[in-house]
Protein backbone atom coordinates (compact mmCIF):
# COMPACT_ATOMS: atom_id res chain seq x y z
CA UNK A 1 0.00 0.00 0.00
CA UNK A 2 1.41 3.39 -1.01
CA UNK A 3 2.73 5.41 1.94
CA UNK A 4 1.79 9.02 2.56
CA UNK A 5 4.14 11.14 0.46
CA UNK A 6 4.37 14.83 1.32
CA UNK A 7 7.30 17.03 0.36
CA UNK A 8 6.99 18.83 3.69
CA UNK A 9 5.71 17.61 7.03
CA UNK A 10 1.98 18.46 7.36
CA UNK A 11 1.20 21.41 9.62
CA UNK A 12 -1.09 19.73 12.15
CA UNK A 13 -2.15 21.91 15.12
CA UNK A 14 -1.97 19.04 17.60
CA UNK A 15 -1.42 15.29 17.98
CA UNK A 16 -5.08 14.28 18.13
CA UNK A 17 -5.83 16.21 14.94
CA UNK A 18 -2.90 14.44 13.28
CA UNK A 19 -4.18 10.99 14.26
CA UNK A 20 -7.72 11.62 13.06
CA UNK A 21 -6.48 13.26 9.84
CA UNK A 22 -4.36 10.22 8.96
CA UNK A 23 -7.32 7.95 9.68
CA UNK A 24 -9.56 9.97 7.36
CA UNK A 25 -6.95 9.77 4.58
CA UNK A 26 -6.62 5.97 4.64
CA UNK A 27 -9.23 4.27 6.85
CA UNK A 28 -8.52 0.77 5.47
CA UNK A 29 -4.75 1.02 5.84
CA UNK A 30 -3.15 -1.30 8.46
CA UNK A 31 -2.10 0.78 11.46
CA UNK A 32 -1.44 -1.42 14.50
CA UNK A 33 -0.48 -5.07 14.89
CA UNK A 34 -0.41 -7.16 18.05
CA UNK A 35 0.03 -10.79 19.03
CA UNK A 36 -2.73 -12.66 20.89
CA UNK A 37 -3.96 -16.22 20.98
CA UNK A 38 -0.96 -17.50 19.07
CA UNK A 39 -1.44 -15.21 16.04
CA UNK A 40 -0.85 -11.63 14.89
CA UNK A 41 -3.89 -9.36 14.54
CA UNK A 42 -4.24 -6.04 12.68
CA UNK A 43 -6.13 -2.83 13.48
CA UNK A 44 -6.92 -0.42 10.62
CA UNK A 45 -6.80 3.36 10.84
CA UNK A 46 -10.58 3.51 10.47
CA UNK A 47 -11.17 1.11 13.36
CA UNK A 48 -8.68 3.03 15.49
CA UNK A 49 -10.42 6.37 14.87
CA UNK A 50 -13.86 4.94 15.62
CA UNK A 51 -12.69 3.41 18.91
CA UNK A 52 -10.78 6.54 19.98
CA UNK A 53 -13.84 8.73 19.32
CA UNK A 54 -16.11 6.31 21.17
CA UNK A 55 -13.79 6.26 24.18
CA UNK A 56 -13.56 10.06 24.15
CA UNK A 57 -17.35 10.41 24.32
CA UNK A 58 -17.68 7.85 27.13
CA UNK A 59 -14.84 9.31 29.20
CA UNK A 60 -16.44 12.74 29.00
CA UNK A 61 -19.79 11.24 30.02
CA UNK A 62 -18.03 9.74 33.06
CA UNK A 63 -16.83 13.17 34.11
CA UNK A 64 -13.33 13.33 32.61
CA UNK A 65 -12.88 17.00 31.70
CA UNK A 66 -10.34 19.24 30.01
CA UNK A 67 -7.19 19.50 32.12
CA UNK A 68 -7.87 16.35 34.13
CA UNK A 69 -4.81 14.14 34.50
CA UNK A 70 -5.44 10.49 33.62
CA UNK A 71 -2.89 7.76 34.36
CA UNK A 72 -2.20 5.23 31.57
CA UNK A 73 -0.54 2.00 32.71
CA UNK A 74 -0.26 -0.65 30.02
CA UNK A 75 2.11 -2.72 27.96
CA UNK A 76 2.64 -1.68 24.33
CA UNK A 77 -0.65 -2.66 22.69
CA UNK A 78 -3.27 -1.11 20.35
CA UNK A 79 -5.37 0.15 23.26
CA UNK A 80 -2.54 2.49 24.25
CA UNK A 81 -2.70 4.97 21.32
CA UNK A 82 -6.50 4.58 21.28
CA UNK A 83 -6.67 5.66 24.94
CA UNK A 84 -4.18 8.47 24.56
CA UNK A 85 -5.79 9.91 21.43
CA UNK A 86 -9.20 9.84 23.13
CA UNK A 87 -7.83 11.78 26.11
CA UNK A 88 -6.02 14.29 23.90
CA UNK A 89 -9.16 14.89 21.86
CA UNK A 90 -11.14 16.04 24.91
CA UNK A 91 -8.16 18.03 26.24
CA UNK A 92 -7.55 15.73 29.20
CA UNK A 93 -3.88 15.12 30.06
CA UNK A 94 -2.50 11.58 29.64
CA UNK A 95 0.07 10.57 32.27
CA UNK A 96 1.96 7.50 30.96
CA UNK A 97 3.43 5.39 33.78
CA UNK A 98 5.67 2.33 33.70
CA UNK A 99 4.23 -1.14 34.21
CA UNK A 100 7.35 -1.87 36.28
CA UNK A 101 6.52 0.73 38.94
CA UNK A 102 6.05 -0.35 42.54
CA UNK A 103 2.97 0.62 44.55
CA UNK A 104 4.98 3.48 46.11
CA UNK A 105 6.06 4.67 42.64
CA UNK A 106 2.43 4.88 41.56
CA UNK A 107 1.58 6.66 44.79
CA UNK A 108 4.28 9.27 44.08
CA UNK A 109 3.01 9.96 40.56
CA UNK A 110 -0.66 10.02 41.56
CA UNK A 111 0.05 12.30 44.52
CA UNK A 112 2.26 14.58 42.44
CA UNK A 113 -0.08 15.08 39.45
CA UNK A 114 -3.41 14.66 41.25
CA UNK A 115 -4.85 12.15 38.78
CA UNK A 116 -8.34 10.93 39.72
CA UNK A 117 -8.78 8.53 36.79
CA UNK A 118 -6.67 5.71 35.36
CA UNK A 119 -6.70 3.47 32.29
CA UNK A 120 -4.85 0.21 32.96
CA UNK A 121 -4.35 -3.05 31.09
CA UNK A 122 -4.38 -6.02 33.45
CA UNK A 123 -5.96 -6.93 36.81
CA UNK A 124 -2.48 -7.12 38.38
CA UNK A 125 -1.65 -3.56 37.32
CA UNK A 126 -5.08 -2.38 38.41
CA UNK A 127 -4.43 -3.84 41.86
CA UNK A 128 -1.08 -2.09 42.12
CA UNK A 129 -2.44 1.26 40.97
CA UNK A 130 -5.48 1.19 43.22
CA UNK A 131 -3.41 -0.11 46.13
CA UNK A 132 -1.31 3.05 45.85
CA UNK A 133 -4.19 4.93 47.45
CA UNK A 134 -4.29 2.62 50.44
CA UNK A 135 -0.64 1.66 50.94
CA UNK A 136 1.22 4.97 50.68
CA UNK A 137 3.61 5.63 53.55
CA UNK A 138 3.73 9.33 52.65
CA UNK A 139 2.11 11.58 55.26
CA UNK A 140 0.07 13.33 52.56
CA UNK A 141 -2.86 11.06 51.65
CA UNK A 142 -3.63 10.07 48.07
CA UNK A 143 -7.25 10.59 47.03
CA UNK A 144 -9.03 7.47 45.74
CA UNK A 145 -9.65 7.04 42.04
CA UNK A 146 -12.96 8.31 40.72
CA UNK A 147 -12.72 6.16 37.56
CA UNK A 148 -10.77 3.03 36.63
CA UNK A 149 -10.95 1.74 33.04
CA UNK A 150 -9.55 -1.76 32.45
CA UNK A 151 -8.42 -3.10 29.08
CA UNK A 152 -8.53 -6.72 30.29
CA UNK A 153 -11.61 -6.37 32.43
CA UNK A 154 -11.75 -8.16 35.77
CA UNK A 155 -12.51 -7.18 39.33
CA UNK A 156 -9.39 -5.48 40.78
CA UNK A 157 -7.85 -6.84 43.94
CA UNK A 158 -8.53 -3.57 45.75
CA UNK A 159 -11.70 -1.51 45.44
CA UNK A 160 -13.03 1.69 46.90
CA UNK A 161 -16.68 2.77 47.13
CA UNK A 162 -15.84 6.03 45.32
CA UNK A 163 -14.14 4.26 42.38
CA UNK A 164 -16.17 3.27 39.34
CA UNK A 165 -14.58 0.41 37.35
CA UNK A 166 -15.49 0.04 33.65
CA UNK A 167 -14.40 -2.18 30.76
CA UNK A 168 -12.39 -0.61 27.95
CA UNK A 169 -14.18 -2.75 25.35
CA UNK A 170 -17.56 -1.31 26.40
CA UNK A 171 -16.35 2.26 26.12
CA UNK A 172 -14.95 1.75 22.60
CA UNK A 173 -17.99 -0.07 21.16
CA UNK A 174 -19.84 2.87 19.53
CA UNK A 175 -20.33 2.50 15.77
CA UNK A 176 -20.69 6.23 15.21
CA UNK A 177 -18.18 7.88 12.83
CA UNK A 178 -15.43 9.89 14.56
CA UNK A 179 -16.24 13.16 12.78
CA UNK A 180 -17.58 15.04 15.83
CA UNK A 181 -14.56 14.24 18.02
CA UNK A 182 -12.14 14.86 15.13
CA UNK A 183 -13.66 18.28 14.47
CA UNK A 184 -13.40 19.16 18.15
CA UNK A 185 -9.78 17.99 18.30
CA UNK A 186 -8.81 20.18 15.35
CA UNK A 187 -9.49 23.29 17.49
CA UNK A 188 -6.87 22.45 20.15
CA UNK A 189 -3.96 24.96 19.94
CA UNK A 190 -0.33 23.74 19.67
CA UNK A 191 0.65 25.25 23.04
CA UNK A 192 -1.91 23.16 24.91
CA UNK A 193 -0.56 20.54 27.30
CA UNK A 194 -0.43 17.19 25.51
CA UNK A 195 0.91 14.91 28.22
CA UNK A 196 2.72 14.70 31.51
CA UNK A 197 5.70 12.34 31.33
CA UNK A 198 7.71 11.56 34.42
CA UNK A 199 11.50 11.49 34.22
CA UNK A 200 13.18 8.13 34.72
CA UNK A 201 14.43 8.99 38.20
CA UNK A 202 18.11 8.20 37.56
CA UNK A 203 19.07 10.99 39.95
CA UNK A 204 16.18 11.02 42.42
CA UNK A 205 12.37 11.21 42.57
CA UNK A 206 10.76 11.42 39.09
CA UNK A 207 9.48 14.86 38.03
CA UNK A 208 6.46 15.42 35.78
CA UNK A 209 7.54 17.01 32.49
CA UNK A 210 4.81 19.06 30.82
CA UNK A 211 5.06 18.47 27.07
CA UNK A 212 2.78 20.61 24.88
CA UNK A 213 1.63 19.39 21.46
CA UNK A 214 4.14 21.72 19.78
CA UNK A 215 7.09 19.97 21.46
CA UNK A 216 6.28 16.49 20.15
CA UNK A 217 5.24 17.80 16.71
CA UNK A 218 8.53 19.72 16.52
CA UNK A 219 10.38 16.43 17.11
CA UNK A 220 8.30 14.72 14.44
CA UNK A 221 8.92 17.49 11.93
CA UNK A 222 12.67 17.38 12.47
CA UNK A 223 12.82 13.57 12.30
CA UNK A 224 10.79 13.64 9.07
CA UNK A 225 13.71 15.35 7.35
CA UNK A 226 15.98 12.44 8.32
CA UNK A 227 13.61 9.79 6.94
CA UNK A 228 13.24 11.77 3.71
CA UNK A 229 16.98 11.28 3.13
CA UNK A 230 16.48 7.54 2.67
CA UNK A 231 13.02 7.82 1.13
CA UNK A 232 9.54 7.11 2.45
CA UNK A 233 8.38 3.53 2.01
CA UNK A 234 5.61 1.27 3.20
CA UNK A 235 7.41 0.90 6.52
CA UNK A 236 6.80 -1.47 9.42
CA UNK A 237 8.02 -0.51 12.88
CA UNK A 238 8.54 -2.90 15.80
CA UNK A 239 7.66 -1.25 19.13
CA UNK A 240 9.19 -2.85 22.22
CA UNK A 241 10.54 0.01 24.35
CA UNK A 242 7.90 1.11 26.89
CA UNK A 243 5.45 3.71 25.57
CA UNK A 244 5.63 5.38 28.98
CA UNK A 245 9.16 6.53 28.11
CA UNK A 246 9.34 9.81 26.19
CA UNK A 247 11.65 8.33 23.53
CA UNK A 248 9.25 5.58 22.45
CA UNK A 249 6.21 7.76 23.17
CA UNK A 250 7.31 10.35 20.60
CA UNK A 251 9.46 8.40 18.13
CA UNK A 252 7.81 4.99 18.21
CA UNK A 253 4.23 6.11 18.56
CA UNK A 254 3.38 9.56 17.20
CA UNK A 255 6.23 9.97 14.71
CA UNK A 256 5.95 6.53 13.14
CA UNK A 257 2.18 6.77 12.90
CA UNK A 258 2.42 10.24 11.38
CA UNK A 259 4.45 8.66 8.56
CA UNK A 260 1.75 6.07 7.97
CA UNK A 261 4.03 3.26 9.12
CA UNK A 262 2.40 0.16 10.55
CA UNK A 263 3.35 -0.26 14.21
CA UNK A 264 3.71 -3.85 15.42
CA UNK A 265 3.84 -4.34 19.19
CA UNK A 266 6.43 -6.79 20.46
CA UNK A 267 5.41 -9.42 22.97
CA UNK A 268 8.22 -8.20 25.24
CA UNK A 269 12.01 -8.04 25.39
CA UNK A 270 12.19 -11.77 26.13
CA UNK A 271 10.50 -12.42 22.74
CA UNK A 272 12.39 -9.72 20.84
CA UNK A 273 14.54 -12.08 18.73
CA UNK A 274 11.46 -14.04 17.60
CA UNK A 275 9.47 -10.86 16.97
CA UNK A 276 12.20 -9.48 14.71
CA UNK A 277 11.83 -12.59 12.56
CA UNK A 278 8.02 -12.59 12.62
CA UNK A 279 7.43 -8.87 12.00
CA UNK A 280 10.48 -8.19 9.78
CA UNK A 281 10.52 -4.44 10.60
CA UNK A 282 12.01 -1.82 8.31
CA UNK A 283 12.59 0.77 11.07
CA UNK A 284 13.57 0.11 14.69
CA UNK A 285 14.59 2.15 17.71
CA UNK A 286 17.14 0.73 20.13
CA UNK A 287 18.71 1.57 23.47
CA UNK A 288 22.45 1.01 24.02
CA UNK A 289 21.96 -1.76 26.56
CA UNK A 290 20.00 -3.90 24.08
CA UNK A 291 22.60 -3.25 21.37
CA UNK A 292 25.36 -4.27 23.78
CA UNK A 293 23.55 -7.50 24.72
CA UNK A 294 22.95 -8.47 21.08
CA UNK A 295 26.57 -7.65 20.24
CA UNK A 296 27.75 -9.88 23.10
CA UNK A 297 25.63 -12.78 21.84
CA UNK A 298 26.93 -12.33 18.31
CA UNK A 299 30.55 -12.39 19.51
CA UNK A 300 29.94 -15.44 21.70
CA UNK A 301 28.41 -17.26 18.73
CA UNK A 302 31.39 -16.39 16.55
CA UNK A 303 33.86 -17.59 19.20
CA UNK A 304 32.11 -20.96 19.34
CA UNK A 305 32.27 -21.38 15.57
CA UNK A 306 35.02 -22.81 13.37
CA UNK A 307 38.17 -20.81 12.67
CA UNK A 308 37.18 -20.01 9.07
CA UNK A 309 33.92 -18.41 10.23
CA UNK A 310 35.80 -16.37 12.82
CA UNK A 311 38.18 -15.21 10.10
CA UNK A 312 35.37 -14.09 7.79
CA UNK A 313 33.54 -12.31 10.60
CA UNK A 314 36.66 -10.46 11.75
CA UNK A 315 37.39 -9.47 8.16
CA UNK A 316 33.86 -8.08 7.79
CA UNK A 317 34.32 -5.95 10.91
CA UNK A 318 37.84 -4.83 9.96
CA UNK A 319 37.07 -3.90 6.35
CA UNK A 320 33.76 -2.30 7.29
CA UNK A 321 35.50 -0.19 9.91
CA UNK A 322 38.16 0.89 7.41
CA UNK A 323 35.43 2.12 5.07
CA UNK A 324 33.75 3.98 7.94
CA UNK A 325 37.02 5.71 8.73
CA UNK A 326 37.20 6.96 5.14
CA UNK A 327 39.87 4.61 3.82
CA UNK A 328 39.59 3.46 0.22
CA UNK A 329 39.92 -0.32 -0.06
CA UNK A 330 42.29 -1.69 -2.72
CA UNK A 331 40.54 -3.71 -5.48
CA UNK A 332 41.20 -7.17 -3.98
CA UNK A 333 39.89 -6.11 -0.55
CA UNK A 334 36.93 -4.29 -2.09
CA UNK A 335 35.99 -7.54 -3.85
CA UNK A 336 36.33 -9.48 -0.58
CA UNK A 337 34.25 -6.83 1.19
CA UNK A 338 31.43 -7.32 -1.35
CA UNK A 339 31.58 -11.07 -0.82
CA UNK A 340 31.39 -10.56 2.95
CA UNK A 341 28.06 -8.75 2.44
CA UNK A 342 26.56 -12.12 1.51
CA UNK A 343 28.61 -14.37 3.76
CA UNK A 344 28.53 -12.35 7.00
CA UNK A 345 26.56 -9.10 6.92
CA UNK A 346 23.40 -10.67 5.53
CA UNK A 347 23.40 -13.06 8.51
CA UNK A 348 23.54 -10.09 10.93
CA UNK A 349 20.70 -8.42 9.02
CA UNK A 350 18.67 -11.62 9.36
CA UNK A 351 18.82 -11.32 13.16
CA UNK A 352 16.71 -8.17 12.81
CA UNK A 353 14.34 -9.69 10.26
CA UNK A 354 16.35 -8.92 7.13
CA UNK A 355 14.57 -5.69 6.12
CA UNK A 356 15.80 -2.96 8.50
CA UNK A 357 16.50 0.25 6.57
CA UNK A 358 17.47 2.31 9.59
CA UNK A 359 17.94 1.78 13.34
CA UNK A 360 18.00 4.68 15.78
CA UNK A 361 19.79 4.43 19.12
CA UNK A 362 18.80 6.74 21.95
CA UNK A 363 17.88 6.90 25.62
CA UNK A 364 21.49 6.73 26.82
CA UNK A 365 25.08 7.08 25.59
CA UNK A 366 26.18 4.55 22.97
CA UNK A 367 29.86 3.62 23.12
CA UNK A 368 31.36 4.60 19.71
CA UNK A 369 33.01 1.18 19.32
CA UNK A 370 29.59 -0.49 19.66
CA UNK A 371 28.13 1.84 17.05
CA UNK A 372 30.99 1.19 14.64
CA UNK A 373 30.63 -2.57 15.19
CA UNK A 374 27.08 -2.50 13.83
CA UNK A 375 27.84 0.00 11.08
CA UNK A 376 30.76 -2.15 9.91
CA UNK A 377 28.39 -5.12 9.76
CA UNK A 378 25.90 -3.27 7.57
CA UNK A 379 23.28 -1.97 10.02
CA UNK A 380 22.51 1.69 9.32
CA UNK A 381 22.57 2.75 12.98
CA UNK A 382 21.97 6.40 13.86
CA UNK A 383 22.75 7.62 17.35
CA UNK A 384 20.55 10.43 18.58
CA UNK A 385 20.44 12.57 21.69
CA UNK A 386 17.73 14.14 23.78
CA UNK A 387 15.91 14.26 27.08
CA UNK A 388 12.30 14.20 28.20
CA UNK A 389 12.35 17.98 28.71
CA UNK A 390 12.95 18.45 24.97
CA UNK A 391 10.22 16.34 23.51
CA UNK A 392 12.66 14.33 23.79
CA UNK A 393 14.75 14.42 20.57
CA UNK A 394 17.37 17.17 20.21
CA UNK A 395 19.78 15.82 17.59
CA UNK A 396 20.45 12.76 15.47
CA UNK A 397 22.98 11.53 12.97
CA UNK A 398 22.09 11.97 9.32
CA UNK A 399 21.41 8.59 7.66
CA UNK A 400 23.55 9.67 4.71
CA UNK A 401 26.47 10.93 6.84
CA UNK A 402 26.84 8.93 10.06
CA UNK A 403 29.55 9.70 12.60
CA UNK A 404 29.46 7.06 15.31
CA UNK A 405 31.39 9.14 17.85
CA UNK A 406 28.71 11.87 17.73
CA UNK A 407 24.96 12.26 18.19
CA UNK A 408 24.66 14.20 14.95
CA UNK A 409 23.56 17.78 14.26
CA UNK A 410 20.48 19.34 15.91
CA UNK A 411 17.14 18.58 14.29
CA UNK A 412 15.65 21.23 12.05
CA UNK A 413 14.01 23.92 14.18
CA UNK A 414 16.33 23.37 17.15
CA UNK A 415 18.66 26.12 18.35
CA UNK A 416 21.65 24.67 20.21
CA UNK A 417 24.69 26.28 21.78
CA UNK A 418 27.39 25.37 24.28
CA UNK A 419 27.62 27.47 27.44
CA UNK A 420 30.95 28.68 28.84
CA UNK A 421 31.09 25.74 31.26
CA UNK A 422 30.43 23.28 28.43
CA UNK A 423 26.73 22.69 29.16
CA UNK A 424 24.45 22.07 26.19
CA UNK A 425 21.66 24.66 25.90
CA UNK A 426 18.59 24.17 23.68
CA UNK A 427 15.86 26.50 22.46
CA UNK A 428 12.81 25.99 20.23
CA UNK A 429 9.30 24.56 20.06
CA UNK A 430 10.62 21.24 21.41
CA UNK A 431 11.25 22.66 24.90
CA UNK A 432 8.84 21.62 27.66
CA UNK A 433 6.38 23.98 29.31
CA UNK A 434 7.99 23.15 32.66
CA UNK A 435 7.90 20.68 35.55
CA UNK A 436 4.46 19.99 36.97
CA UNK A 437 3.99 21.86 40.25
CA UNK A 438 7.69 22.81 40.48
CA UNK A 439 8.04 26.48 39.44
CA UNK A 440 11.48 26.92 41.03
CA UNK A 441 12.93 23.88 39.27
CA UNK A 442 11.32 25.04 36.00
CA UNK A 443 12.94 28.47 36.37
CA UNK A 444 16.32 26.82 37.00
CA UNK A 445 15.99 24.56 33.95
CA UNK A 446 14.70 27.17 31.46
CA UNK A 447 16.48 30.51 31.54
CA UNK A 448 15.92 33.23 28.95
CA UNK A 449 14.15 30.64 26.79
CA UNK A 450 17.10 28.22 26.83
CA UNK A 451 16.73 24.73 28.28
CA UNK A 452 19.79 23.89 30.38
CA UNK A 453 20.18 20.17 29.66
CA UNK A 454 22.73 19.32 32.36
CA UNK A 455 24.80 17.55 29.70
CA UNK A 456 28.32 18.53 28.67
CA UNK A 457 29.25 18.52 24.99
CA UNK A 458 31.18 20.01 22.09
CA UNK A 459 30.22 20.83 18.51
CA UNK A 460 32.63 19.92 15.71
CA UNK A 461 33.28 22.22 12.70
CA UNK A 462 30.55 20.44 10.70
CA UNK A 463 27.91 21.03 13.35
CA UNK A 464 27.85 17.52 14.82
CA UNK A 465 27.34 17.31 18.58
CA UNK A 466 29.43 15.07 20.81
CA UNK A 467 28.31 14.39 24.39
CA UNK A 468 31.14 14.14 26.88
CA UNK A 469 29.26 13.71 30.18
CA UNK A 470 26.44 14.63 32.50
CA UNK A 471 27.27 17.85 34.32
CA UNK A 472 26.11 16.52 37.67
CA UNK A 473 27.67 13.07 37.15
CA UNK A 474 31.22 14.33 36.69
CA UNK A 475 33.46 12.82 39.37
CA UNK A 476 35.81 15.24 41.10
CA UNK A 477 38.68 13.34 42.74
CA UNK A 478 40.33 14.50 45.95
CA UNK A 479 43.17 15.99 43.93
CA UNK A 480 40.74 18.14 41.91
CA UNK A 481 40.79 16.07 38.71
CA UNK A 482 37.47 15.94 36.83
CA UNK A 483 36.63 12.45 35.52
CA UNK A 484 33.90 11.45 33.05
CA UNK A 485 32.32 8.25 34.44
CA UNK A 486 30.40 7.70 31.19
CA UNK A 487 33.65 7.46 29.21
CA UNK A 488 35.24 4.97 31.62
CA UNK A 489 32.06 2.91 32.00
CA UNK A 490 31.63 2.78 28.23
CA UNK A 491 35.13 1.39 27.79
CA UNK A 492 34.54 -1.21 30.50
CA UNK A 493 31.28 -2.58 29.07
CA UNK A 494 32.92 -2.71 25.66
CA UNK A 495 34.99 -5.61 27.05
CA UNK A 496 33.33 -8.99 26.30
CA UNK A 497 33.84 -10.10 29.93
CA UNK A 498 31.91 -7.14 31.40
CA UNK A 499 28.13 -6.85 31.12
CA UNK A 500 27.60 -3.73 33.28
CA UNK A 501 29.80 -1.27 35.15
CA UNK A 502 29.38 1.77 37.38
CA UNK A 503 32.30 3.93 38.42
CA UNK A 504 32.55 5.89 41.70
CA UNK A 505 35.18 8.04 43.40
CA UNK A 506 33.83 11.54 44.05
CA UNK A 507 36.03 13.14 46.72
CA UNK A 508 38.32 10.11 46.81
CA UNK A 509 41.91 9.78 45.67
CA UNK A 510 41.18 7.19 42.95
CA UNK A 511 38.34 5.53 41.04
CA UNK A 512 36.61 2.27 41.97
CA UNK A 513 34.13 0.24 39.95
CA UNK A 514 31.22 -2.11 40.56
CA UNK A 515 31.23 -4.68 37.77
CA UNK A 516 28.65 -7.22 36.61
CA UNK A 517 30.43 -10.06 34.79
CA UNK A 518 29.12 -11.26 31.44
CA UNK A 519 27.83 -14.82 31.41
CA UNK A 520 30.63 -17.40 31.56
CA UNK A 521 33.42 -15.07 32.76
CA UNK A 522 35.25 -15.58 36.07
CA UNK A 523 37.08 -13.07 38.35
CA UNK A 524 40.47 -13.49 36.61
CA UNK A 525 38.81 -12.63 33.29
CA UNK A 526 37.24 -9.53 34.86
CA UNK A 527 40.62 -8.45 36.26
CA UNK A 528 42.20 -8.94 32.84
CA UNK A 529 39.45 -6.84 31.22
CA UNK A 530 39.92 -4.02 33.74
CA UNK A 531 43.69 -4.07 33.12
CA UNK A 532 43.09 -3.87 29.36
CA UNK A 533 40.90 -0.78 29.83
CA UNK A 534 43.35 0.84 32.26
CA UNK A 535 46.08 0.69 29.61
CA UNK A 536 43.95 3.02 27.45
CA UNK A 537 43.17 5.47 30.25
CA UNK A 538 45.10 8.33 31.78
CA UNK A 539 46.64 7.83 35.21
CA UNK A 540 43.80 9.61 37.03
CA UNK A 541 41.08 7.76 35.07
CA UNK A 542 42.32 4.26 35.90
CA UNK A 543 40.27 1.86 38.00
CA UNK A 544 42.33 1.07 41.12
CA UNK A 545 39.82 -1.24 42.83
CA UNK A 546 36.81 -3.13 41.64
CA UNK A 547 34.24 -5.60 42.95
CA UNK A 548 31.84 -7.91 41.13
CA UNK A 549 28.16 -7.59 42.00
CA UNK A 550 24.85 -9.14 40.83
CA UNK A 551 23.22 -7.65 37.71
CA UNK A 552 21.55 -4.25 37.84
CA UNK A 553 17.95 -4.91 36.74
CA UNK A 554 14.59 -3.21 36.47
CA UNK A 555 13.16 -5.65 39.03
CA UNK A 556 15.72 -4.77 41.70
CA UNK A 557 15.23 -1.06 41.05
CA UNK A 558 18.76 -0.37 39.82
CA UNK A 559 17.79 0.15 36.15
CA UNK A 560 15.18 2.36 34.57
CA UNK A 561 12.71 0.83 32.10
CA UNK A 562 15.04 1.87 29.27
CA UNK A 563 18.04 0.14 30.87
CA UNK A 564 19.77 3.21 32.30
CA UNK A 565 21.56 2.74 35.62
CA UNK A 566 20.11 4.55 38.63
CA UNK A 567 23.44 5.58 40.13
CA UNK A 568 21.99 6.71 43.47
CA UNK A 569 20.14 3.41 43.94
CA UNK A 570 23.24 1.39 43.01
CA UNK A 571 25.23 3.40 45.54
CA UNK A 572 22.65 2.77 48.26
CA UNK A 573 22.35 -0.94 47.44
CA UNK A 574 26.09 -1.56 47.46
CA UNK A 575 27.10 0.95 50.13
CA UNK A 576 29.00 -1.63 52.19
CA UNK A 577 30.96 -2.88 49.16
CA UNK A 578 31.82 0.65 48.08
CA UNK A 579 32.99 1.47 51.58
CA UNK A 580 35.41 -1.45 51.46
CA UNK A 581 36.65 -0.22 48.08
CA UNK A 582 37.16 3.24 49.51
CA UNK A 583 34.64 4.83 47.12
Question: What would you say this structure looks like, in words?
Answer:
This protein has 583 residues and is α/β, with parallel strands linked by helices. The protein has three domains: 15-282, Rossmann fold; 284-354 and 356-470, ANL, N-terminal domain (Rossmann fold, 3-Layer(aba) Sandwich); 474-581, 2-Layer Sandwich (GMP Synthetase, Chain A, domain 3), CATH 3.30.300. Helix content is 38%, strand content 21%. It is built from 19 helices and 26 strands. The strands form seven sheets. A five-stranded parallel β-sheet has the order 4-3-5-6-7, with helices on both faces. Strands 16, 17, 19, 20 and 21 form a five-stranded antiparallel β-sheet that branches. Helix 1 packs across helix 3 (79-89) and helix 4 crosses helix 5. The longest helix is centred in the middle third of the chain and has 21 residues, at 331-351. It is globular.
Largest sheet, strands/sense/barrel: 5 strands, parallel
Please tell me the total number of domains. Answer: 3
Give the strand order of the largest sheet, numbering strands 1, 2, ... along the chain: 4-3-5-6-7
Q: Tally the helices: what do you get?
A: 19
The CATH architecture category of the largest domain equals: 3-Layer(aba) Sandwich
What class would the helix/strand composition place it in?
alpha/beta
Terminal residue distance: 59 Å
Q: Which quaternary structure do these chains form?
A: single chain
Residue fraction in strands: 15-25%
Assign an overall shape.
globular
Residue stretches low in confidence (pLDDT < 50, at least 5 long) are none
Estimate the mean pLDDT confidence: 92
**Level of helix content?**
25-40%
Number of strands: 26
C-alpha Rg (nearest Å):
24 Å
Amino acid sequence: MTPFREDTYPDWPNLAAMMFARAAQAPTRPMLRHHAGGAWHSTTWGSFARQAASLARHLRAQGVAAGDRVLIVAENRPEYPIAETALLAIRAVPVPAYTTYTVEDYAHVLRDCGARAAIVSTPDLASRVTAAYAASTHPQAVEPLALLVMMDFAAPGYSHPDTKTLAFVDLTADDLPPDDIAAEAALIPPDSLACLIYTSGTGGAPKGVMLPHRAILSNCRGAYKLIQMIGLQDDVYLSYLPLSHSYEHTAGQFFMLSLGAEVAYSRGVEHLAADFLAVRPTIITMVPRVLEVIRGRILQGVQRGPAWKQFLFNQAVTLGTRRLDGHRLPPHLALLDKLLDKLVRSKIADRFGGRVRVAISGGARLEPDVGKFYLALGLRLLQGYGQTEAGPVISANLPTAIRAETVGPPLEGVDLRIAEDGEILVRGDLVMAGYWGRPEETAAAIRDGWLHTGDIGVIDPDGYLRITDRKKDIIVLAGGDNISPARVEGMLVNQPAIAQAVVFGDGRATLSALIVPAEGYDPPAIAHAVDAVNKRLTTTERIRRHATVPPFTIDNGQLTATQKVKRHIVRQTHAATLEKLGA
